[in-house]
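Consider one such protein record:
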Amino acid sequence: MKAIVVDHFLSSHNELSVSSIPTTKHWSPSSVLIRVSHVSPQYVDLLYARGLHQNNSPRGHVHPPFVLGYDFAGTVISCPAFSAFKPGDDVYGSALGAFAEVVVADEMSIRRVSRELGNAGAAALVGGMTSYAAVVAIAEVRASDTVLVIGAAGGLGVVACQVAAACGAHVIGVVGSAAKANVLRQEVGVEDVAGYNKEGWEKRIIDFTEDDRGVGVVIDVVGKVESGLRCLRYGGRIVVLGFAGREGNMEAVKMNRILLKGASVIGYRYGEHGRRFPQETAALLDGFNEMVTNGKIKPIIYTEKYTGLEDVPRAMNDLAERKVWGKAVIAINPEIEKPKFAAAATLLDLELLTESAHASTAPDFLFSYNSLATSPSRLPQLLKTSRPSPSSNDSNITSAMSGFLNEDFGGSESEDDDFNPAPAVESDNEDAEDTNATQRRASKSEEPRRNAPENDEDEDDAKAEADDAPLENKLSRRQSRGGDEEDNEDEAGANDDAGADEDDEERDEEEEEDDEDEEEVTGHRRKRHKRDARLQFIDVEAEVDDEDEEDAEDDEDVPGDQFIADTHPDDLLDLPAGAEKDDQRHRELDRQRELLASMDAEKQAAAFQERYGQRKRAAAADSAIVPQRLLLPSVEDPTIWGVRCKLGKEREIVFAIMKRLEDRANTREPLAISAAFERGGSMAGYVYVEARKQADVMTAVDGLQFAYPRTNMILVPINEMPDLLRTKKSKSLEPGMYVRIKRGKYAGDLAQVEEVETNGLDITVKIVPRLDYGQSEDANAPMIDNRVSGALAKRKRQGALGSNNFASRPPQRLFSEIEAKKKHSKFLSALSSLSSKQWTYLNDTYIDGFLIKDMKVNHLQTEDVNPTLEEVTKFAAGAEDGTENLDLTALAATLKASTAAADFLPGDMVEIYDGEQRGVFGKAISVHSDIVKLRVTEGELKGQTVDAPVKGLRKLFKEGDHVKIIGGSKYFDEVGMVVKVRDDRVTLLTDSNQAEITVFSKDLREATDSGGAMGVSKYDLFDLVQLDASTVACVIKVDRGSLRVLTQDGSVRMLLPSNIPNKLEHRRFAVATDRDGSEIRIDDTIKEYGGEQKQGRVLHIHRNFLFAQNRQQTENAGVFVVRTSNVTTVAAKGGTAANAGPDLSKMNPALQRNGANGTAMAPPKSFGREKMIGKTVTVKKGPHKGLLGIVKDTTDDSARVELHTKNKTITVKKDTLAIKDPITGAPADFRG
């Protein structure tokens, strides 16, 4: 291809020349191959060519050799398969290397050319986006501002003037010549213009302002900041866009001027700003396109004509000599601006396509070229000439192209004369199809209507001879009927063509008259062929003459039935009812179609759209083929912006936006947004608004409470929009399923679904209640979990910092009306029911001991519930034999989603319990995703391999297996032997404490070790250990490398042996007193006075804490901790100790026999066996006065008496005893 190549930095622009280089063979996946039609040089190109730009530095990216040029417009040749563009689209944009016949540009750097602009105008406005962004976003020009544009007649300056004027500002321009000043006044509409070549022009700028204080905004595109400061008022703004006026030499600005003016000087580079802030740049681009569409921005093109790449040096010289105003536009390939699908492909297109195919690095999308419009008879010849010496790879290319040429494009043989193939697949672009069909109709209406096939052959020969004619001559006749005119830049040439068109029309009329004569001679009509479905909007019928006599003669030759059969279905739809046989109605329809044919192309397209649009939409809805691009968002669709908001207020903000939308619906300033929504979950904290511009989102959200639109508003990428709008199917709840509660006092607790409302949002659940029955209101209540639950607890409000509501909540127990009556009898009421016990307590309903509560579904955890067997057992109903009756159906429904392939390992014995293979037993061989492959061990399939889904499998154990609990239970890591198997529940006897526990089979695995891990540890089960200076704990479980301990405050900890500083010796003679004052010793049986009233044997006594064990309980190995003041003694180690009181005789000094001179005289000694032993005695004084007992042992002055009443042995003085007759009870003296 041809291009302007800079192989070394030049000293003069005259050194530029056109070179032939290979087509680019290195594309990125997002690149688009474009055939250039127009280019527009700029001052950056002047600097690039001479190496004066900062990008030419060693750190820059522009170094020889490179192809010059940036701004271009052209037509897409090839693009990615899923691109927003397609071959044949007119686009404009910027890319290095534009001064060439073909340029490769990134998809994000190009835009479609609007119908109003054309390619030449679009090329002139490529750089206008820089000016728009500088005025609107950087300078923030308002209607009250006065804007000075330095270099106002240049390419950036003229657009800056138009944008500032559109914003309502007063615009002043500075130019370099009188000719440019006239252009600025006449073409742009700027009245106040000054020339910076005259001295003192800055003073004239100040005179242009209303208050003579200077301008508020300066847009500098040439590098005159010093001059701009002189024209600026205090606190003004200067936006610097370039330094082209300095020829690469940087301007030195005196900083004191900026200080004295209080000025803000801002530099703006559109490319760099777009890379750093793509979301803002995209919004600005939409605003720029809107102004172009509304006519507020128009291209200002320099009147000098430049054609071909050979004129690039001349255009750049004019630009360097400051002759150019507006933008100079060079027409490289102006012919490709003709209507698409009507121009024949040139040899260059085929060469590009062939070179692209030969490129080893070229991706497959380059073969999506589908704009060929050449005669198929010449394509093989063109392919051969484009590649004289094909290689082995070329043969594949040639075969691929030949396959492409052999495709049937839906036309008949007669259509070869006008070879204009339609795309082989259904096109997404309706306009392209309409244009293609309209041109086919125009070409057919011009053809002579012949009946003999010889005429077609003659015409084919004539057509082949005319292939060498110029492209414009071959297309002029076809385009004359379609109403399309060439966009010639030379107006005189357009006028000359008008006369030729009139001659062609006269010749066409004569040929039509000859055709009509031929039809009269033949005397009959040709049989109508089946019409193509794509021609339903196109008039291909023969014209009907207005003379009634000739029509009547034709009607006599054609039977009525045949006439009706030949009537096309589209004609029947257009005719009124009953008009099938009325020839006058047919002629009227033909006249209407002739009128449509004479209409302008745009009006005709609008009429067809209005008439058949609804029918086409209905047909598209019924069609099974939907283009993939229509199913996903594209760059043409509105964008979605994420606005930050306060967490939990998303729905409230959406409602506020909806209300604001309704309030402004019928006003002059309605909200320009499409939708607003929130997603919650992981996307909580954002409200998503769909709109065309970011400013529309700001208008809709700004000022709303809890919304923060000015803090990091995000633009959702197009590829993430489907994920944002994708809905996740919520799990359907059914009565009996298990869920968990997310918040409140019951957070984390298991609940069972009782009822589901029809809306699916309100759920009635059954919960095991957590009630303290007023203990927290009792000032003298005992401590629960080392926390005072009485008046001291009221000093710190619930939920305050430092309070742990979760740790202090009551344990789970079924509701007891007896406990409720003790404290809150006035809040307790019974409900009448014949089938169950129902109570209302503190405004909550309790049925059969369970709390029945209505909750919202978003307050419940419905997935990954994983209920343990201990939790499920609490919901089990009692069977008639007193055993538990679990609802396995509801449990299976809950566990179905949580059963994963990770629960099964190769070597596990499994059973298929669901499906067609139910009852098959085997050993797992491998696990892949959710499929387990097992080898059958029993039955008819023994030895065979079977694949089974995880959801229908369960592990198989038999009595005597040594297993280990691996999860899903509080007995995690416990090891034991299986003693019972029932359905999916396995009961095992633990090795650690010989307790029976029941778990699900999915939570078990065969153990490879025994449960004697505690034998290798220096700590034994139930040892008392010291954790810190004030905390002790009791060991409740010994694992291989860790210990579980129960601390004195009731919490369970997992510790390493190295983390325990000390082991406390077992104090066998430790003594404490209960709430009644009775002594408590090791191994005594105690009972908790309040709370759960647990009963157990004392293991350890530490200060005022007791560690006791109840073998009937499995939690924490049966160990619990209580305070001594909250227990009573049930039985001492040697017997019962009920109602035993304290021995107060040792505590009262007044009862001691001490005098002033010493102790009292001891009684006389007796020798031999003591006579009092075995006697029945009564106590005469002291706290035990009047009590009877039997003397068990004696010393010199005291005796041990076993009391009859309290069953307690006391020690008293002998002189305080009186012997009683065991029969009569009469007193007797033991000395006698």
Summary: The domain at 649-725 is CATH 3.30.70.940 (Alpha-Beta Plaits). The radius of gyration is 50 Å.
